[in-house]
Write a structure and sequence with these properties.
heterodimer; A: about 250 residues; mainly alpha; MetI-like fold; 10 helices; elongated; B: alpha/beta; 4-stranded antiparallel sheet; about 40% helix; about 25% strand; globular
């Protein structure tokens, strides 16, 4: 490849789109199982104009932002404190290690059992799933802060608390931001999975509702919407991350 | 004793790695550093000279023996003892100006004074024009000048330097030596300077304390203060060469011992 213009970069996507349109129309695949792209686009427009996409999107957004936001706040606090205080580490570390390999979606039924079918169980599922990568990144980031940096601050007269806020936290930031990126990816998976399972609201619910009703073009429209949202969330996050870490070259 | 004179009294220190057996790093080190004196701690790597500096800085607890600064025992780090590390240890997320300002902020100085003092120091270390650069955009020598400015900003009576020029190339190092001496002439301080570079020690210090291979002890203390004349002139005298040779012979044996111990 010599050229990396916008055209060549998106060429594979364009080819996929053409294939998606042509294959069902030529009955290479069953159009009732994979409706042509144009039909999906029409269905998407329909969902957008009658407000279904919007109301369910808002509902999903609320669950997502509370779950992910909570995980970020609690995860950073816990990870940094584990790195800083040996006793916190001794108590929390075995729990974190035990929970780490657990499949995130396995938490959903447990949360439903405890918190019911409403938003609470979804927020908790997302929060619990996103917590571990944030904790680990904050822990490793805080651990990795150069001892001499901490000592320099202490020699300037910084208190232990000030060192925590002014040296450990910003020092751990690059790792924390990378951890949050993983959490964002996980959050989308668990969001959709939890709404697919139960509930009467949200984009995941819309997918399962349309799928069960056999409205496959609309179902695909929602699936694509969720994928696009995930993609753009990651892009926006990457941009934010680069802006925040300008000091690294 | 008032002021910033330092007394190490029979200081021993055992390093306890998380895994493995404890290592005796320092063994009964006694040393006096007079106020406004420049003392170099010279020794092979791993001899505990940095450990001695960290104990003086209050970063490590003094478990055996005593360290007093100005007659008061050292208890934790404090702004009376500024430190400069080999790897600059600048806050990478802060600009040059913000780094220099950090200590002044911790000292709760009024804002106008902080700004004025920071600018003064940035000019002192010849970094005017780089105030808003981040450390990642600076060369090693420039980074170390920022670190020195940050430390000097809080006007410590004692300056602890942990191989501060060890990571710099030879030319930059020589220039930094001259700058450090110029700064010390303007604002004299008590300095404890850790190095394994014999010439650097003789050139900068009033006295050089040679340390043995681990466990570190003071092997010998050698006067290196030039009698009259400047240090730059001193460097070209026969006496300078003799001191360097003499000290090198002392260090050489210890460096060989240290190598054998590590082999």
């Amino acid at each position: 490849m010599t050229s990396n213009s916008v055209f060549t970069r998106y060429l594979p996507l364009l080819l996929l789109a053409i294939l998606w349109e042509v294959a069902p129309r030529l009955h290479v695949v069953d159009p009732s199982e994979l409706p042509p792209l144009s039909a999906v686009a029409m269905a998407w427009w329909g969902l957008l104009t009658d407000g279904d996409l919007w109301t369910n999107g808002v509902s999903s957004f609320i669950n997502w932002s509370f779950g992910l936001g909570g995980a970020i706040l609690i995860g950073i606090a816990l990870g940094v404190l584990m790195a800083w205080y040996q006793t916190v580490d001794d108590v929390a570390s075995p729990l974190v290690k035990a929970l780490y390999p657990m499949p995130k979606s396995a938490l959903i039924p447990v949360m439903i059992l405890w918190l019911g079918l409403g938003a609470g169980s979804k927020i908790a599922s997302i929060g619990m799933s996103c917590l571990l990568p944030v904790i680990l990144s904050a822990y490793n980031g805080a651990r990795g802060v150069d001892q001499a940096l901490i000592w320099s601050a202490r020699a300037c007269g910084a208190s232990e608390r000030e060192v925590l806020w002014e040296v450990i936290l910003p020092g751990a930031l690059p790792e924390i931001l990378a951890g949050i990126r993983n959490a964002v990816a996980i959050s989308f998976i668990v969001l959709v999975a939890s709404e697919l399972l139960v509930g009467q609201r949200g984009l995941g619910y819309l997918i399962s509702f349309l799928g069960e009703g056999g409205v496959y073009d609309a179902m695909f429209a929602v699936v694509i919407t969720v994928s696009a949202l995930g993609f753009f969330a990651d892009r926006a996050y990457l941009y934010f991350m680069r802006r925040t870490l300008v000091w690294r070259e | 004793m008032a002021g910033s004179g330092i007394v190490f009294g029979q200081v021993s220190h055992t390093y306890r790695p998380p895994r493995g057996r404890p290592v005796l790093a320092l063994d009964g080190v006694s040393l006096e550093v007079k106020e406004r004196e420049f003392v170099a701690l010279l020794g092979p790597s791993g001899c505990g000279k940095s450990t001695l500096l960290y104990l003086l800085g209050g970063f490590l607890p003094v478990e055996t023996g005593s360290i007093a600064v100005g007659g008061k025992p050292v208890h934790g780090p404090g702004p009376d003892r500024g430190i400069v590390f080999q790897n600059y240890s600048l806050f990478p997320w802060k600009t040059v100006r913000q780094n220099v300002l950090y200590g002044l902020e911790k000292q709760r100085k009024p804002k106008a004074e902080r700004e004025r003092r920071a600018q003064e120091l940035i000019e002192l270390v010849h970094l005017k024009g780089f105030e808003d650069s981040y450390p990642s955009q600076l060369s090693g020598g420039m980074k170390q000048r920022v670190a020195i400015a940050r430390t000097l900003a809080i006007e410590p009576e004692t300056l602890l330097m942990d191989e501060p020029f060890g990571a710099l190339d030879a030319q930059t190092r020589t220039l930094m030596h001259e700058e450090l001496l110029a700064i010390m002439r303007r604002t004299p301080k008590t300095v404890v300077f850790v190095t394994h570079d014999v010439r650097e020690a003789v050139y900068l210090a009033d006295r050089v304390a040679v340390m043995t291979a681990r466990p570190g002890r003071i092997k010998q203390i050698v006067e290196t203060k030039p009698v009259g004349g400047s240090r730059t002139d001193f460097m070209h005298t026969r006496e300078f060469g003799d001191k360097v040779d003499y000290l090198w012979n002392l260090v050489r044996d210890e460096a060989i011992k240290a190598q054998e111990a590590n082999a």
